[in-house]
Amino acid sequence: MKVVVTGGAGYIGSHTVVELLERGHDVHVVDSFCNSERSVIARIAGLVGKPVPFSELDILDSSALTDCLIEVRPDAVIHFAALKSVGESISMPLEYYRANVEGTISLLSAMDAAGCSRLVFSSTATIYGEPEECPVPETASLRPPTPYGRTKLASEWVIRDCVDAPDSKLIAVILRYFNPVGAHPSGLIGELPRGLPNNLAPYITQTAAGLRSHVRVFGADYPTPDGTGVRDFIHVVDLAVAHVAALQVLEGGDGKSLTLNLGTGRPYSVLEMIQAFSDVVGHPVPYEVVERRTGDIVESWADPSRAEALLDWRATRSLREICEDAWRWQRNLSCRALED
Ligand code: NAD
Ligand code: WQD
Fold this sequence. Notes:
Number of strands: 13
CATH superfamily of the domain at 2-181 and 234-263 and 301-316: NAD(P)-binding Rossmann-like Domain
Helix content: 40-55%
CATH topology of the domain at 2-181 and 234-263 and 301-316: Rossmann fold
Bound molecules: nicotinamide-adenine-dinucleotide, UDP-4-deoxy-4-formamido-beta-L-arabinopyranose
CATH class of the domain at 2-181 and 234-263 and 301-316: Alpha Beta
């Protein structure tokens, strides 16, 4: 299939582009590079041994996006382009609604103009808020606790309403990711957090690399086995493979819209993650327990059974592989920083 990947130079998008190209799909990346480096495109090309066509544009530029899709004529679009910082969304909600909701509307309009009716959408498990039960099914209550989460849920509503409209040809697979972590095993692409990382894994690898003095563990007084937060950490390559599988479902075209949790179904605590990374890097990763982070939930892990059944997919990479791949990427980042 010919696939346009919005946000294809980003963390999850770049890994998905690699998997698509390695499986013979034609890919065209659309990215503004507002939160990624142009060099990612060349690194993907080097990795797969194929050129990676791309258009540098803001998906909010509806005219440019429409022209691009009319020119490329994709069979499907995978929509990653969005702003994703929870903290930032609290201080700049309008920018987040514009980027994430208006951006999705702009894309849907452009797809309609270009006659493209297949969409895979990046959603997030944060829309569940503090889940009533774990593992979390797709039928769980939706209570996004932040503007970021609300922009992703609103985007889901827009997509589903467009799918359900009379005479609509749009079909969509909505994928709710739990906690993506890790990097491509080549060490050539991975997460590129700008400034202070928002998430646990890059904070641990930067600490292990000596770039930070210690990891702050946000609370050890939660009602969990070791008192720290519990999450479903899924390897980014497992996520990427699920997107390829979602395309195959869309190619069949027999569903209207499908909403699926992408997780491992295996919960790990913050301290278990720190220990797993310590085992891989070969020395204890220093940490300090501090007060809870405002807005954090206690625990969340997926019931991935629908995705496993309907996508014929399963997360296969272990916690050790996650740590090994993340650590290899961090070491390569450190080497590149020294070369630059
Ligand atoms: P990322 O920031 O690494 O990648 C997003 C990419 O989109 C970047 O390359 C950025 O330059 C581009 N982009 C952003 N706004 C754009 C715009 N207006 N026009 C064109 N390009 C634009 O983020 P990621 O971690 O790869 O996340 C990808 C998607 O997955 C996002 O929709 C995010 O909400 C969702 N998601 C991420 C996580 C996570 O923890 N990383 C978890 C759940 C869901
Ligand atoms: C995981 C655990 C923290 C950092 C976020 C977004 C969500 C999604 C994924 C986009 C928690 C603890 C963290 C640190 C810590 N992103 N932690 N010290 O909060 O589960 O989800 O990223 O869609 O929307 O909310 O991920 O990695 O920030 O935190 O102790 O320096 O690690 O308290 O228990 P989170 P996270």
